[in-house]
From TrEMBL:
Protein name: HTH tetR-type domain-containing protein
Alphabetical UniProt keywords: DNA-binding
One Gene Ontology molecular-function label: DNA-binding transcription factor activity
Domain of life of the native organism: Bacteria
Native source species: Comamonas serinivorans
Amino acid sequence: MVTAPTSSHREPSPARAKLKTEGYAKGDAARQRVLDAALLAFGQAGFKGATTRQIAEQAGVQLPAIAYYFGNKDGLYLACAHEVIARYRARVGQAAEHALALLQPPRPTDTPSPRSAQQAYDALSQLIHALVGLLVGSSESQRWTAFIAREMGSPGPAYQLLYRDLWAPGVDLVTRLIARVQGPADDTPAALAQARVQAVLLISSLVRFQSGRELALQLLQWPRIGPDECATIAAVLLAPLQPAQR
């Protein structure tokens, strides 16, 4: 005997499917609002100073939403770090991948390229321009550079995550590019140490530039930081690193 299908086996109606999709979209939007509010709150007050209640109010959600999306305050803080890393990779990833490919060891059949220093400088220039655009020229970074600066100055729960997935590989990449620009003759422990200092100063200066944005604008007498200003900043940073003419 054939029976009619029960409600549990029915295909969802278009209206119900639409409501489900809208529900997911609203959930994603609420989660993002919490992340944005948390990045700002943690950047301003630190992990201990910011409260989940304040973050929920700023994000326009009920307090249980934080537990639903992130588990607890620690989970929210680590999610902020993952969000920052994801934004870095989205904006700088292409330039970083190009630089990493350039730095791969040559095959035995490859002939040395007399332009290797210039190629390294070009890759470094592309990477620095991308970093300047993200850290200084982007309005979105204003929401989370204080979070980064606070972790740098006063390590919190996200420090090791940021160090492992962002700072250490970023500084290592810039160090290797600077060393390649300087040439094989400078491939010594002392020269590599100097290149690493240059890389740390270069990257940290961009973070500090953004965290002191208003002061920088006043001192430079710039009404804003647009493409031209970003190009000027990148050019100044790159000027001491240009390869010597051989």
